[in-house]
Amino acid sequence: MNPRALVVAAVVLALLQCREHPREDRRLAQPKLEPPRAAPPKAKPPVIDEPKPEPKPATSPGKAKPVYRVGGEVSRPELIHRVDPDYARLNQRTIRPLGVAILEAVISENGTVESARMLRPADPDLDSLLLAAIRQWRFRPAKKDGKPVRVYYVLTVNIDWQ
Q1: Which residues fall within 8 angstroms of residue 73, CB to CB, at 6 or more apart?
Q2: What fold does the segment set 67-160 form as a domain?
Q3: Is the full-model pTM beyond 0.90?
Q4: In this predicted structure, which of 2-11, 120-129, 136-145 has the lowest mean pLDDT?
């Protein structure tokens, strides 16, 4: 017999045998799905002695002084001593800054500037000089019901360096 004929016969025989068996028999066995199990409880980490926070000084709730906004019953503080920024630090610059910077400061009961922050910066090099100068300003304190109080105060500084 011809070898080619043998190969064709083997293929035909294999195809006939496949048709004799139902398709269900040729399927792979489907694994049974088990319902999901609950995760095992996690082990608690070992307890390590954590440093205890230092006790804070005892203060009564009345000691914390609120910071008010100017307006209504709260009068505005009045500037009594102004310190200009140290422009000498910027002498190397060829362009002189001009414009307006807007800052917000907290003015204490005794008229000093407790803190200040830029709301609208004017110039990156000049902003730190402005903040340093404003922290040295002195005010006649704001008052509420005739008593000095801490206030937020918005300051507008015109920058005109001549």
Answers
A1: 144, 145
A2: TolA/TonB C-terminal domain (3.30.2420)
A3: no
A4: 2-11
